[in-house]
Amino acid sequence: MAATIAELAERGTVPEIWRSGNAPGGDERNGLFLDRFRGRVRWL
């Protein structure tokens, strides 16, 4: 999985992955993820 994420990053694509809330910017990044998929996944 890490190799795939690295490959995507090299190609300029930001993969949609859940980040630790303890990581710098994790909560903010996860908030964007939730906003994007909330309409598709009912329990979000």
Protein described:
The protein is mainly α. It has one domain. The chain is built from two helices and no strands. The two termini are 24 Å apart. The mean pLDDT is 89. This is Transposase. It comes from Nonomuraea marmarensis.
Write the layout of secondary structure elements.
Blueprint: H1 2-10, H2 26-37
Protein name: Transposase
Average pLDDT reading:
89
Span of the ends, CA to CA: 24 Å
Low-pLDDT runs: none
- Name the shape in a single word: globular
Number of domains: 1
Helix content: 40-55%
Number of strands: 0
Radius of gyration: 12 Å
Continuous helix count? 2
Major beta sheet, specifics?
none
- β-strand percent reads under 5%
Output the structural class. mainly alpha
Element-by-element helix/strand order: HH
Protein name: Transposase
Entry keywords:
44 residues; mainly alpha; Transposase
In brief, what are we looking at here?
The chain is mainly alpha-helical.
